[in-house]
Amino acid sequence: MQKRQRELSALTLPSSVEEVSEGHRARSVGVGRAHAKVILLGEHAVVYGAPALALPVPQLTVTANAGWSSHLFEGQGDLSYTMTGSPSRAMVTQSSDGLRRLFTEFKARMGVAGRPHLDVLLDSAIPLGRGLGSSAASSRAIVFALADLFGLELTEDTAFDLVQTAENMTHGRASGVDARAVGAAAPLLFRAGEVQQLKIGWDGLFIVADSGVAGSTNEAVELLREGFQHRAGAQERFVDRASDLTRAAQQALAEGKPQDLGPQLTDYHRLLRAAGLSTDRIDALVEAAIEAGGLGAKITGGGLGGCMIALARPEQARDVTRRLHEAGAVQTWVVPLKGLDNHAQ
């Protein structure tokens, strides 16, 4: 197998489909998939060395298809890129530029020579700019589609490196949580660049609610950094508090104590709100979820918009979901903890 992989990696690929013989291409179309994620606790602090807990959201998927093209793309390099739905022109341009950089990294990492011309189609159900990992999931799906097309085996570590490279291009200094979580089959603990599967001691569920307003990770990161610079000891206090809450939440998950986990979520929300990273609409959703019987709730992701998550017992899910919509949520998704470790990639 390793010998065959080396042989495939060393192929000099032709520039168009007419020059590609059947012996040179293992697939006519390559397919790759990934899914959304939410951060339970630890966002922002994880960049400063604190732990973070992440939850896969398998209901929200992205699929990439990569195929050989017979066209030369004047002024566009080697790729034709299409997104389903109704993305803005600016969004498509930004995504296309990112994909080309990702393709360059893929070819260098995987030993693909030549200038093959490809058509890439991205079909995503993950709302953009909501803290659900849409950019990382798209990159992962594309990377696996390219590997499938070229008949190359892609390890998780190599996939992570490629996705992380794309994330750093998009967000600056990315923590790596998204790059791991969008391919995870179970809830994860992320700490100092290492990941491990979380122990889950009960069958509760989380409700994810979309505020309808896109957040801005880059703006939120800069806002937090400026706050740290202007207040002595602010960074240490923030990271220490975030670490304490995240470690306590990890223990509550493992021991099956939702009555402890709920307040830890809400306390983390207060931490992020105090740092200026929440919004009035997110705060209203958090309050609505708790008033409806939710055990706790918080903003999730970069902040300044996006989504929130609420912890609920199964019998509370309907009331919490209803109240979230009444409070302004444009979409909601229920993510049960039970069965996530059986989610197939």
Number of domains: 2
Question: What Rg is obtained from the alpha carbons, in whole angstroms?
Answer: 21 Å
Largest sheet: 6 strands, mixed
Which residues sit in consecutive blocks of at least 5 with pLDDT less than 50?
1-24
Broad structural category: alpha+beta
Number of distinct beta strands = 12
* Rounded average pLDDT: 87
The succession of helices and strands, N to C, reads: HEEEEHEEHHHEEEHHHHEEHE
**Which word captures the global form?**
globular
The termini sit apart by 22 Å
| Helical residues, percent | 40-55%
Report the β-strand fraction as a percent range: 15-25%
The level-1 CATH class of the largest domain:
Alpha Beta
CATH topology of the largest domain: Ribosomal Protein S5, domain 2
Helical stretch count?
10
CATH architecture of the largest domain, please? 2-Layer Sandwich
Could you name the key traits of this structure?
345 residues; alpha+beta; Alpha-Beta Plaits; 2 domains; six-stranded mixed beta sheet; four-stranded antiparallel beta sheet; 12 strands; 41% helix; mevalonate kinase activity
Q: Short summary of the structure?
A:
With 345 residues, the chain is an alpha+beta fold.
